[in-house]
Specification:
single chain, about 350 residues, alpha/beta, 7-stranded mixed β-sheet, two-stranded antiparallel ribbon, 12 helices, 11 strands, about 30% helix
Length: about 350
């Protein structure tokens, strides 16, 4: 057969095959939107002597990569808990993301005890002033201030956890600490220079400078806190925190670090000291460069990538820090395949 006839025959066969191929809507089982973003986690079951319910609060932001960190954090809590089925998660999120978040949580953690709470950004948006890093200015970063208002009054104690940490110990040990009548418990770091957390306008102001009178204030990180919600409600601490945010938003500029300074102003010096192992913080470096850091000396129950550098971003960029390898086993994110069946 002449070569030109081979070409004609081949073209005709291709046209016939294309004509016989079923429509794409019939053969395609999933679209990109249907594919879960995260792999399903294993089911974790209770050990012995599980009678107490442990309440944990976290924020979930479906529109940002921080969701990946939150999912890793939940997995780490469940994996190391003696009583994972007795752990109840209270998730704060904006209402427009509820549908997607509910699908994400139930597909990733089918056995998880949880509830979504609507955090309205307008509650706090007018009180937020710009800080050293944009992520610190997001309304959800301030949601921890409103836990006592959003959660049921039947919840009297809560552990608040940030979205950039993993727990590597039984969370019940943190839950069971004695607050000794204090409203808040957290690891304190009294060696830090406390004056650096506020501007000269604060320290040279005749009234503001007396804020810590009769107190010995120490820095504490608000990414890990045990809170007595009943005492918080009874003493109106949400309004006290809002007061300092209004001062900051007015003609004064008394701090630069987002939601942390109001907590220091209200609670520093009256915090129940928790062992440092429950917040090995600063693994994300500082708020400007996010350089690699080493662990603090001593035992570790919780690893916290506070600072600019987040492990999921550094791992994806193929430029991880050594300690990011400790976060990676808890990452359930489903990476897109390089190949497609369609």
């Amino acid at each position: 057969m002449p070569p030109e006839n081979y070409l004609i025959t081949t073209v005709l066969l291709l046209l016939i095959l294309l004509h016989l191929r079923p429509p794409a809507t019939v053969t395609a089982s999933f679209t990109a939107a249907d594919t879960p973003k995260f792999r399903e986690a294993p089911a974790f079951r209770n050990g012995k002597n599980c009678s107490t319910t442990i309440h944990i609060a976290m924020t979930l932001d479906y529109s940002s990569p921080y969701l990946r960190g939150s999912i890793a954090g939940v997995l780490s809590v469940l994996q190391h808990a003696t009583c994972p089925e007795n752990t109840f998660f209270h998730f704060l999120a904006v209402h427009r993301h509820f549908n997607n978040l509910n699908k994400t949580i139930t597909s990733t953690f089918p056995y998880l005890n949880f509830k979504l709470y609507n955090f309205n950004p307008t509650l706090v948006r007018h009180l937020i002033s710009s800080s050293v890093r944009r992520a610190l200015d997001q309304p959800l970063n301030y949601a921890r201030i409103y836990l006592a208002d959003l959660l049921p009054t039947t919840v009297n104690r809560i552990i608040y956890l940030d979205s950039d940490l993993i727990v590597v110990d039984d969370i019940a040990k943190l839950w069971n600490i004695d607050l000794n009548g204090r409203v808040l418990g957290a690891p304190e770091y009294c060696h830090a220079n406390f004056t650096h957390y506020f501007t000269n306008k604060f320290w040279f102001h005749p009234t503001f400078s007396n804020t810590f009178k009769n107190r010995t204030p120490c820095y504490f990180n608000t990414g890990v806190m045990v809170i007595d919600l009943q005492k918080w409600r009874n003493n109106g601490y949400t309004r006290k925190l809002e007061h300092w945010m209004r001062v900051q938003k007015s003609r004064y500029r008394i701090y630069e670090l987002g939601s942390l300074p109001p907590f220091l102003l209200v609670f520093a010096g009256n915090v129940k000291q928790v062992e440092h192992k429950w917040n090995q913080h600063g693994l994300g470096g500082d708020n400007l460069e996010g350089q690699c850091r080493d662990l603090h000396p001593g035992p570790v129950s919780l690893l916290h990538w506070s600072g600019k550098g987040k492990p999921w971003l550094r791992l994806d960029s193929k430029k991880p820090c050594p300690l990011d390898s400790l976060w990676a086993p808890y990452d359930l994110f489903r990476h897109e395949s390089l190949f497609s069946d369609i």
